[in-house]
């Protein structure tokens, strides 16, 4: 993860790439080696980090319903909006594997919703 943090790039796309790689690596470790209480390998910590990234880091800052509605006609959107939708999609790539490790609750419910939204994104 330290190597990922040192990757070059100061653009929103490079920042999102680093976040996506972080989420993917953490999910892979949890999936293959099992969860741990260390915050890097704790599924609940990863769920919280994912929800924070979805809520704060993206310029559109839309909820799942708004993202789904916007993506239904994504071919008609400006290129910047399509890019934002792609960034939502990349930040949710790990969710299908992660939700199985989460206890029932609001975070799991929100991530399951995002998993469904992801299927509609360009």
Radius of gyration: 14 Å
- Write the element-wise H/E pattern from the N-terminal end onward: HHHHHHH
State the end-to-end distance. Answer: 28 Å
Please count the helical segments: 7
Shape, per Cα inertia axes: globular
| Biggest sheet statistics | none
Structural category is: mainly alpha
What can you tell me about this protein's structure?
The chain is globular and about 45 Å long. The protein has seven helices and no strands. It starts with a helix and ends with a helix. The protein is 64% helix and 0% strand. The longest helix is centred in the first third of the chain and has 22 residues.
Give descriptors for this structure.
mainly alpha, 64% helix, 122 residues
Question: Brief overview, please?
Answer:
The chain has helices at residues 2-5, 12-33, 43-57, 64-71, 79-90, 95-98, 106-118. By secondary structure, it is mainly alpha-helical. The protein is globular, with a radius of gyration of 14 Å.
């Amino acid at each position: 993860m330290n190597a990922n943090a040192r990757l070059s790039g100061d653009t929103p796309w490079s920042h999102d790439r680093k976040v996506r790689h972080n989420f993917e690596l953490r999910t892979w470790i949890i999936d293959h080696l099992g969860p741990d209480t260390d915050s890097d390998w704790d599924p609940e910590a990863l769920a919280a980090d994912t929800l924070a990234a979805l809520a704060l880091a993206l310029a559109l800052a839309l909820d799942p319903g708004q993202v789904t509605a916007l993506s239904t006609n994504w071919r008609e959107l400006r290129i910047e909006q399509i890019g934002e939708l792609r960034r939502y999609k990349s930040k949710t790539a790990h969710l299908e594997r992660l939700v199985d490790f989460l206890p029932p609750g609001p975070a799991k419910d929100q991530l399951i919703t995002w998993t469904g939204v992801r299927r509609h994104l360009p």
